[in-house]
Specification:
single chain, mainly alpha, 181 residues, 70% helix
């Protein structure tokens, strides 16, 4: 069994990779008309975006449950709210893949925007920001501002969550643009 520090390190590396790839995909989205050579990337993301979203949401669910159920990291109220906006997306993507329905992209973007705002707010708290709203975890033993993971001077669990939500938004932008499967 790997120590938790090793797992944290590799998850943080994966988050950095996802951030870099997300910025590249965002560039492709906005520059695809000016640079026709980017069209294959846009087409790939449009075609396989539902599968990417499904696998990414399943991965986020697995990591959150692994830490809470295996390592005993108590999720705070803001963590639970982020889960509320991530967990249903796996089911939405599974149904969308089964029914070949690309309209799920709008729902995923909506869920991801709300979940991303919550995640960014919690990251702000964990980086030392002043609380604007009270932590909804009163009585659960988990504090919204407590860091259980802090890698590379900025990566926290909420930033991981924010990165997943942002990546889902970017990929779903490509799915929305594609009208045929």
């Amino acid at each position: 069994m790997y120590p938790i520090e090793t797992i944290n390190y590799y998850l943080a590396l994966a988050v950095i990779a996802m951030q870099i790839v997300g910025v590249a995909f965002l560039f492709v989205y906005f520059a695809r008309r000016k640079f026709p050579d980017l069209a294959p990337v846009a087409d790939f993301l449009g075609k396989w975006g539902l599968w990417i979203g499904f696998l990414l949401s399943i991965g986020g669910i697995a990591v959150s449950l692994f830490y809470s159920e295996i390592f005993g990291v108590l999720p705070c109220g803001l963590c639970w709210l982020q889960r509320v906006f991530l967990y249903p997306q796996a089911l939405l993507f599974a149904l969308a893949i089964w029914k070949s329905d690309r309209n799920v992209a709008d729902y995923s973007i909506s869920f991801s925007i709300v979940g991303g705002i919550i995640a960014f707010y919690q990251h702000y708290l964990q980086m030392g920001g002043a609380s604007i709203l009270p932590c909804p975890a009163v009585g659960t033993g988990a504090d919204c501002a407590q860091r259980y993971l802090f890698e590379f001077g900025y990566i926290t669990f909420p930033l991981m969550s924010f990165t997943i939500f942002a990546f889902l938004i970017i990929v779903m932008l490509f799915v929305r643009r594609r009208f045929v499967i």
